Amino acid sequence: MIKIDRAHIVQSLSTNRVGSYFFQFGLFLLPSSALLGSIFLLSSSFIKPCHREISFWEDKWNYLLISTALLMIIGCFHAYSGTLAWLGLANWIPLFWCFWGFQPYLRTPDLRRRSAYCLILGTVPLLITGFGELWLGWDGPWQTFNGLIIWFISAGGEPEGRLSGLFEHANYAAAWLVVVWPLSLAALIQPFLNLRKRSFVFCFVMAVFIALVMTDSRNGWGGLIFAIPFVLGPINWTWFLPLFFIILLPIALAVLPGIDTGLQELARKIVPKHLWSRLNDMRFVDSRPIEGTRLAQWNVAFGLIKDKPWFGWGAAAFSVLYPIRKGLWHGHAHNLPIELAVSHGLLVSISIVGMVASLLIIALLRGVLVVNQNRNIDNDNLSFDRAWWTSTFLLVCFHGTDMPFFDSRINLVGWVLLAGLRSLIYSQKLESRNRA
Fold it and tell me: Please, are residues 170 and 216 in contact by the beta-carbon 8 Å criterion?
């Protein structure tokens, strides 16, 4: 006969609730305060919750991250960037632990939905300050608790004319909003919302839409469009995709090279000038030096990778070496896989990129985007799982031409999304076994 320790059960349940509260409160605070959000999130990762299906050493994903961490540490011993290389590990190794530590708080569709709501609600201060700086001329910095919390708000946005809100640059604000946009769409399409609640959610969705447009981020604009079919699911593609291509066609004609001159001029009369000029960078044709383009940065980065392919030059080395080679400062390579290869070597880059791609592909192959028409299935939570996958995918794509992960808030929310995907995959695996 099994003896049940009631005191142990009560203590475990209490610990699990405390960890969940810390985790969800951390998500809510994260966009407003990197410090407070990080404290609560990191604390939650060390609180031992109940119902861990597998131990740390039983999860093979952790072995990949441990190996990657070791490669990073070895590379630091002979890094060109010296102390910066060691400091740069803080962007990665603590988050490797968080990937494991966050999973218990995301192990079910309902928990992922609650976490999505925390991210949505936490975005409200970003929207308010973003609109305030552009429309009302609000100017910071605003600070409280003796400078522990600082909001770097710039009148007119940063850069000028672009919504940045709580973030130091509009592209970082766009990255956060790209994560929240699919989640807010999932909240909007919940079938059982009453009129009052749906109206409130609709207003929030429109605010996110307007804010993303006003960031003037091309990655943000792409996320606005491509999130919709993924969140709606393939069952709605028969009507959405034709509409999508009808809307996209004049934009493509206005931007792409090689289009008939008369046809392109007609398209540019239909599409707002600011949109098509921003998409093909015509504003910078005369003012931006070749050294300031992505292609020039990537060309230099490939040369650096060729010179030191195995352990790289160390974190932040690109910002040191690029001015030496091109005479113009750039803080990073504007591409995460390339930046990783420059800083830590090809093996590290392949490991991390391969892990992220595998999580996305495995979840996709297991039907995360499928809309289940069975009324007995909880489609409310399934729509949030589709949105969760979409947010992860869009943030990954964002890092193809920019590096918002250097903002700790974007970095943390990225690992929260990856932990959620891992939990989603594991729960789907358990369900398949149970059905078998």
Answer: yes
∠ Cα 261 267 272 (to 5°): 130
Residues 92, 137: Cα–Cα separation, whole Å? 37
Beta partners for 149?
A: 144
| Structural contact between residues 23 and 104, judged by C-beta atoms closer than 8 angstroms | no
| Integer angstrom CA distances of residue 171 from 157, 402, 407, 434 | 11, 8, 11, 44
How far, in whole angstroms, is CA 378 from its chain's centroid? 26
Burial 107-129 (b: 16+ CB within 10 A, else e): bebebbbbbbbbbbebbebbbeb
Closest by CA to 221, choosing from 151, 274, 147, is: 274
pLDDT in tens, 103-141: 999 988 899 999 999 999 999 999 999 999 999 989 878
Contact between 251 and 275 (Cβ < 8 Å)? yes
* Distance of alpha carbon 260 from alpha carbon 254, whole angstroms: 10
What 8-state DSSP symbol labels residue 289? -
- What pLDDT does 102 receive? 93
Please write the tens of the pLDDT for every residue from 310-366: 998 888 888 888 787 776 777 778 889 999 999 999 999 999 999 999 999 999 998
Question: What Rg do the C-alpha atoms of the chain give, in angstroms?
Answer: 23
CA 155, CA 161: separation in Å to the nearest integer? 9
From 328, 319, 281, 327, select the one nearest 301 (Cα to Cα). 319
Task: Find residue 144's DSSP bridge partners.
Answer: 149
